[in-house]
Amino acid sequence: MLMILLVGAVVMTIALSLSKKTVTDIKIDTDEELSKKAFDTAESGIDYYRRTATPIYYAADEGGTRVAEVTAAPLEVSGDYTFEKETAAGHSGYFWLVDHLDDGSLGSGYFHGKLEVCLQTGFAGALKIDYFYKEGDDFKVKRYGYNIGNDPDKRVEGFEDGVDTCSKELDFSSTNSILLAVTPVFSPGKITIRRIEGDDFPAQGEEIVSTGKAGDIDNLPINRTVRIVNQYQVPGFLLEAISAEGSVSN
Questions:
Q1: pLDDT digits (tens, 9 = 90+) for 16-72
Q2: Fold designation for 76-203
Q3: CB-count burial class (<10 Å; 0-12, 13-18, 19+) for 212
Q4: Which of these, 138, 127, 228, lies nearest to 180 by C-alpha position?
Q5: φ, ψ dihedrals at 163, nearest 5°
Q6: How far, in Å, CA of 40 to CA of 36, rounded?
Q7: 107-118 pLDDT per residue, tens
Q8: Where is 7: in which H helix or E strand?
Q9: Which 8-state DSSP code applies to residue 166?
Q10: Whole-angstrom distance, CA of residue 48 vs CA of residue 68
Q11: Are 23 and 31 in contact (CB under 8 A)?
Q12: Gap between the Cα atoms of 123 and 18, Å rounded
């Protein structure tokens, strides 16, 4: 009888362990599936908000209702502004020097002041800056160019030589500033806009944060959050001006 009881206890212990492991595996699989659904819901919430400006998004599936809660706030600039991503060589990063209205159109709060454009330490190549401003009813563009570093194979004829990682001080105090288009040449660059003096920089767009919830959304939901930066779009006529012929101004 003692042997039977011992064998029975061992068998029961093994059975309970296997049962617990099975339950744990099922919970892990369920949580992974809910996590994926919550992430997908968060992304869908952003798309829905950008189409409708509605901050709540609902979706239904066999597991019950999923929901995304979306918040959006102006992408304010406090002090220096560093672009989130590295800008590829030959491509432009855009920085607004005028505010925007609620419908996304240009406002009249122009930046008046001085700034400089910088690339990361060790950058070797050239820096091209297109500065757009408004004079009366006309939009105009002025160009600046700098060769950075000492590599003779990474310089542009006509650009200013002997410049470190930052441009010279650019004074926009007396113009109605619209936009900077900053283009690293030959090498990719991490762009920073530094305010030296003058007005605060305007907001650059919207920061949108969406939290997707799946599972038991009223008690213990699985949450996943997605954040994107929705930068103000550049009007087509300004993009055309970027490629227009013109001399570089030092």
A1: 555 554 544 444 556 788 889 899 999 999 999 988 989 999 887 766 778 999 998
A2: Jelly Rolls (2.60.120)
A3: buried
A4: 127
A5: -100, 140
A6: 6
A7: 999 999 999 999
A8: helix 2-52
A9: B
A10: 10
A11: no
A12: 59
